[in-house]
Design goal:
The complex is a heterodimer.
Chain A lengths: L1 H28 L15 H10 L6 H13 L17 H36 L4 H15 L2 H20 L17 H35 L2 H9 L3 H13 L1 H24 L5 H10 L3 H29 L6
Helix pairs in contact in A: 1-12, 4-5, 4-7, 4-10, 5-7, 6-7, 6-10, 7-9, 7-10, 8-9, 10-11, 10-12, 11-12
Chain B lengths: L1 H7 L21 H11 L1 H24 L30 H37 L1 H16 L2 H12 L4 H12 L1 H15 L2 H8 L4 H9 L4 H25 L10 H8 L11 H25 L8
Classes of the chains: A mainly alpha, B mainly alpha.
Chain lengths: 324, 309
């Protein structure tokens, strides 16, 4: 087990390097340069060349890459990820300030997804082809097909505007907390409702479709029939024998859903002006803030790799049939 | 004869002795079977019809009306629906219906163009990896892993952001670069199976080179998954473009796409909420149709599936 975990971690390292090379190449191949922002009639070519040298852009590509990647891993240094072009703050600090909000958003969404989709999936499976099943399956198909940004706008519209118009109570249009708030949990939760909702619908649809299929598969297994034959109650068969086995692949599913959660977070944070990593990335892209874009892109890659890694290892821990 | 003996054996199906009595099952070609299986898939047929109608509208109306969709008529700001403008006019007096149709056209063009790139790269990478195996396969699949490690939308965003030009071609290329991985994996999987087939060995024995074997002998066999992946890819590409335009990095005005319309109209939540629903509904319809079509094609193109008549 430990050797397997170690092997998986070692396998992940080249992929991380691959991601860093990919990001580096995208930036290098694209027209435009980080110093374009200094170009204006009052800046002489000599000054531009000096800036170019200052940023190390006159060095060979390979050297630039090595320089960047060796600096990037030294996260104990505050300047490891460079300084933002927008406000001159260390990127590491900026990312550090934004990360908790995104992690909160993503983890709450994941919990909501799991809590909601498990009962839905079971219900659809044990009543296969019933009206309930058909309603659930239809909603799951539609929920899965609706693009997340579309859902986000509609949720914002109904949750903040329409709801307020009808009841005089509405959820906030933007932000992580009330302006000048001191981070009290009730206020944070109040601001989290709509973003979490818009981030969860698609994953709930995906998870419940998957769980339905997994449950149907497990319910046909011999050991479930044996349990039935022994006279175990329906509840016991479903809860103890079927569900436990159907839930194992859920771990992989959670790992695989991390990329879509991150992409969803970029959109959700933009729609709800939620100050997280996604919002930071979009702002950085608008402002041609190269160091910040590098940093967040790498961070997203690391998140995805870590998610897959943890899912793979946990899968082995939970499912005793897996041998390494 | 022999069949007479069989007939007396209990438990076997009696074989007809006189073959004239048998209703001959007409021989059906692969494509006839495909059509039959596809027509059986009711949702897929509905999706195909809907999509065809949408495409027809998106071709005909913009051709007839030209750049009318860009024109704003200040006298008609927030004007109600009428024959010339079934969906009324927007906040600066533009014809919402014409904009919507033009946006649909843009989105469809981007969807299909991007999928052409996706299918092309996917077929190339997948067939090379699957045919040659070994280190070629290993290297190409690691590239796939790397590309998959960055979320689809995020990757498109990065590419478009660094190119800095808000142009249809750049967006199409970005979506193509971000989206080819699934197609490549599917083609590779198919090639790994096909590689072991006798007809490939036969072609090799006849002296065919790798290029000929891949293109003429094996690629047709890997067509089915490629078509299905492409059909689903259209939906992904259109969503990708809309999300991009919605975030402000997509099609630039005065051009219009569904996502960009949404972005432009989201500021009129309070005064004109219906404006955010028109592009949304069209988008959902296109996406649902493309995914139903993909499901139908998957069932129809699978030669292992039988049609019971």
């Amino acid at each position: 087990m430990a050797t397997y975990a170690l092997r998986r971690i070692i396998q992940a390292i080249p992929i991380l390097f691959g991601i860093s090379i990919l990001i580096f190449l995208i930036v290098q191949l694209a027209p435009g340069s980080p110093i374009d922002r200094f170009r204006n009639p009052r800046v002489s070519p000599e000054q531009l060349a000096a800036i170019n040298r200052l940023y190390g852009l006159d060095r060979p590509l390979f050297e630039q890459y090595i320089h960047w990647i060796t600096a990037y891993v030294q996260i104990w240094r505050v300047d490891a990820w460079g300084y933002s072009f927008i406000d001159g703050q260390p990127v590491l600090t900026k990312v550090g300030n934004r990360l908790p909000a995104t992690l909160l958003l993503m983890s709450v969404s994941l919990i909501v997804t799991i809590v909601v989709s498990i009962p839905i999936g079971i219900l659809a499976a044990i009543r296969q082809y019933s009206l309930t099943d058909k309603i659930i399956t239809t909603f799951a198909t539609i929920g899965y097909a609706i693009p997340s940004f579309l859902l986000g706008i509609y949720i914002l519209y109904f949750g903040a505007v329409v709801l307020y118009g009808w009841t005089g109570f509405g959820f906030p249009l933007f932000g992580r907390q009330t302006l000048g708030g001191d981070g009290n949990p009730a206020d944070l939760a109040y601001h989290l409702v709509l973003p979490v909702l818009s981030l969860s619908v698609q994953t709930i649809a995906g998870f419940s479709r998957y769980l339905r299929a997994a449950m149907l598969d497990v319910m046909r297994q011999d050991y479930v029939r044996t349990a039935r034959a022994k006279g175990a109650s329906g509840r016991r068969v479903v809860g103890r024998h079927a569900l436990r086995n159907a839930l194992i692949p859920l771990i992989t599913l959670i790992g695989l859903s991390i990329p879509s959660l991150i992409a969803g977070a970029v959109i959700t944070e933009t729609i709800f002006s939620y100050p997280g990593i996604g919002d930071l990335t979009i702002t950085a892209i608008i402002g041609n803030d190269y160091p910040t874009i590098y940093a967040t892109a790498m961070l997203v890659g690391i998140f995805v790799i870590m998610g897959n890694l943890i899912a793979d290892i946990l899968y082995g821990v939970v499912d005793p049939r897996i041998k390494y | 004869m022999q069949s007479a003996d069989l007939r007396t054996t209990p438990g076997t199906i009696p074989l007809p002795t006189d073959y004239d009595e048998v209703d001959l099952v007409p021989v059906r070609t692969y494509w006839q079977l495909v059509r039959q299986r596809f027509l059986r898939h009711r949702l897929a047929v509905i999706a195909l019809v809907t999509l065809s109608i949408l495409i027809a509208i998106a071709i005909v109306i913009p051709t007839l009306t030209g750049d009318q969709y860009q024109k704003s008529n200040l006298a008609l700001i927030d004007g109600g629906p009428r024959l010339a403008a079934p969906l009324g006019y927007d906040d600066i007096g533009r014809n919402v219906f014409l904009r919507l149709v033009k946006a649909t056209q843009t989105s469809l063009i981007i969807g299909f163009a991007a999928v052409a790139i996706i299918a092309g790269i996917g077929a190339l990478v997948g067939s090379l990896a699957g045919y040659f195996g070994g280190w070629v396969d290993n290297l190409l699949m690691r590239v796939v892993d790397v590309v998959l490690s960055l979320p689809y939308l995020f990757l498109i965003l990065l590419i478009v952001a660094f190119f800095g030009i808000r142009d249809i071609r750049v967006i199409v290329i970005a979506i193509g670069i971000a989206g080819w991985t699934t197609a490549a994996r599917l083609v590779r999987g198919e090639f790994l199976q096909l590689r072991e087939m006798d007809f490939v060995a036969a072609a090799k024995a006849l002296g065919a080179g790798p290029r000929r074997i891949i293109v003429r002998h094996m690629l047709p066999g890997a067509m089915a998954p490629l078509v299905v992946a492409s059909s689903l890819g259209v939906a992904d590409a259109i969503i990708g473009e809309s999300a991009l335009s919605f975030l402000g990095f997509g099609i630039a005005p005065p051009q219009v796409s569904l996502g960009q319309m949404l972005q432009g109209y989201r500021d009129y939540f309070y005064s004109n909420p219906e404006l955010i629903f028109y592009p949304g509904v069209v988008l959902i319809v296109i996406v649902l149709c493309a995914s139903f079509l993909g499901d139908g094609l998957r069932d129809a193109l699978d030669p292992r599936q039988r049609v019971e008549s």
